[in-house]
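Narrative of accomplishments. A recurring question from our advisory board has been how the design workflow behaves on a single, concrete structure rather than in aggregate. To address it, we present the structure tokens for one chain from the evaluation set, followed by the sequence designed for it. No filtering or post-editing was applied between the two.
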């Protein structure tokens, strides 16, 4: 994005003092590789979303008189190629500060390589890491990172009472970044799905098919990547539809585009800034109305901050089986049958199956759905929760390393916070009482009456026969309960290096 972007503002300032600015986006193979548990990290739908976002950014930068160089390759190689080597020449690499190890390691490698390359000809290079992804700026936190509260409420209370959200950084004016030096590379080139370093050729084909045919018609929303689409969604959700003012009542929905903001994919990729969203909400509150709903979107954005800072505090522990807990452990299992049924939406639990099918077919799942499917896999099936986090990483359009792994770790009870084990049947009755959402994704259940939709296994035999029910029986689960969470500490390290992802 160009709005509220500290890197862009810094680039404009450097330009004003005579520098040439080369905006560059790199599709790095690290993000496409296969996880330790064998799941390709980046699926077709998020790749499509990323391509759209990068294309949109290129269009915006061109309109400002600049451009975007798009490359596929190791970031360190691309940065090294762009580094100036002449005596007295200086290269400054501006990059957003990241919080998780693979991303920060990537920056370190790129920094080393680019400074070494610059020196070969007597030049000089340096990296500037600039904070930019959270609502509250890291420098404004009213505590040291090591004192970050381990649970959300005290974190929220502290930031809300003791720090201010910084003002928006103005977008660059026309010409503020200058024109790009054409010698920096081929600005005409833009990757197609087949140019991306997908883990398998099939994913490139799937991505191309999504681009030409669109996403499953049953989708909650037609997500399209890019800053302009993100800003349009903010405008729609706040100003055009005024859905903002009913968010608190609708936020636990599962069907359709309107029950929640759906801003997560754009926030995750940086297409929209959380400060911008909050500044628009504040404007709405002063111009239209303020209520619990208008506040609650801000409340949710503070969750996002919490997981970002939590990841920074705990480092690779959020990827480890026993998480950040020093006083709790559990006997996680490998259960191929349960995992396969969960992934394909064939567990025999309609709420789980509907949500898992939505994820696989569209790249999105509601927060209510995520909580339930995570609880089922980790706490009912007792399966190593990292399989779930991997699956989400592959499919979610809004995959965000800190939010995904932090939420999974917490859902599995491995951050030491309260364990939320959901009763799936009760959740169905509470959040999909008529079964509209379930029938949307599990057509096999279209004739099941509302009274039985939460648990068709309890339907009388004659009714099952009458509607010719063709839906799996509930998969057999281990007899497992909270008490199996021991109070002994988990192993110090597991999952190995590379972040354990
Ligand atoms: C197991 C699990 C995995 C998750 N993985 C991700 C992920 O990879 N990326 C992601 O953005 N969110 C993740 N979430 C959080 C949440 O489910 C999504 O942010 C939300 O459903 C996205 O829809 P929305 O934009 O309409 O959210 P809204 O309800 O409109 O909320 C507004 C924004 O607040 C933020 N937010 C809300 N809840 C959370 C939360 N619990 N943690 C962090 N941020 C939150 C998001 O940025 C969201 O866009 C996960 C939740 C669970 C339980």
């Amino acid at each position: 994005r160009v709005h509220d972007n500290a890197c862009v503002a810094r680039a404009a300032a450097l330009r004003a003092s005579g520098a040439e600015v080369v905006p560059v986006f790199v599709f790095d193979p690290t993000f496409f590789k296969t996880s330790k548990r064998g799941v390709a990290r980046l699926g077709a739908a998020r790749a499509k979303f990323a391509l759209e976002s990068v294309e949109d950014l290129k269009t915006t930068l061109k309109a400002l008189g600049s451009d975007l160089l798009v490359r596929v390759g190791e970031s360190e190689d691309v940065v090294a190629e762009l580094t100036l080597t002449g005596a007295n020449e200086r290269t400054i690499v501006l990059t957003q500060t990241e919080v998780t190890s693979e991303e920060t390691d990537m920056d370190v490698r790129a920094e080393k390589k680019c400074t070494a390359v610059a020196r070969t000809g007597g030049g000089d290079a340096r990296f500037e890491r600039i904070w930019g992804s959270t609502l509250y700026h890291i420098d404004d936190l009213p505590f040291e990172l090591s004192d970050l509260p381990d649970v959300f409420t005290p974190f929220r209370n502290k930031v809300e009472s003791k720090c201010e959200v910084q003002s928006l950084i103005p977008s660059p004016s026309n010409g503020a970044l200058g024109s790009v030096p054409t010698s920096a590379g081929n600005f005409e080139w833009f990757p197609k799905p087949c140019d991306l370093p997908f883990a398998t050729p099939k994913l490139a084909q799937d991505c191309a098919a999504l681009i030409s045919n669109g996403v499953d018609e049953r989708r909650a929303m037609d997500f399209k990547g890019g800053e302009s689409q993100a800003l349009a969604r903010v405008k729609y959700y706040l100003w055009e539809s005024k859905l903002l003012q009913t968010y608190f009542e609708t936020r636990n929905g599962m069907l359709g585009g309107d029950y929640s903001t759906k801003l997560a994919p754009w926030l995750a990729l940086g297409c929209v800034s959380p400060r911008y969203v909050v500044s628009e909400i504040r404007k709405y509150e002063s111009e239209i109305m303020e209520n619990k709903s208008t506040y609650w979107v801000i409340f949710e954005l503070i969750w996002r901050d919490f997981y970002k800072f939590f990841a920074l505090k705990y480092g690779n522990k959020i990827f480890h089986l026993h998480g950040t807990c020093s006083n709790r452990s559990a006997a996680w299992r490998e259960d191929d049958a349960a995992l396969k049924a969960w992934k394909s939406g064939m567990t025999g639990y309609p709420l789980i199956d509907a949500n898992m099918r939505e994820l696989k077919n569209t790249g999105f799942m509601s927060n209510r759905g995520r909580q339930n499917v995570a609880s089922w896999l980790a706490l009912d099936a007792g399966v190593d929760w990292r399989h779930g986090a991997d699956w989400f990483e592959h499919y979610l359009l809004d995959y965000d390393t800190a939010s995904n792994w932090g939420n999974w770790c917490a859902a599995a009870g491995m951050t030491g916070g309260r364990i939320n084990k959901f009763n799936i049947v009760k959740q169905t009755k509470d959040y999909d009482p008529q079964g509209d959402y379930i029938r949307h994704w599990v057509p096999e259940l279209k004739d099941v009456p509302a009274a039985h939709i939460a648990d068709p296994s309890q339907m009388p035999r004659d009714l099952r026969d009458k509607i010719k029910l063709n839906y799996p029986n509930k998969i057999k689960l281990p007899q497992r309960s909270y008490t199996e969470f021991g109070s002994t500490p988990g192993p110090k390290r597991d999952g190995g290096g590379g972040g354990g992802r």
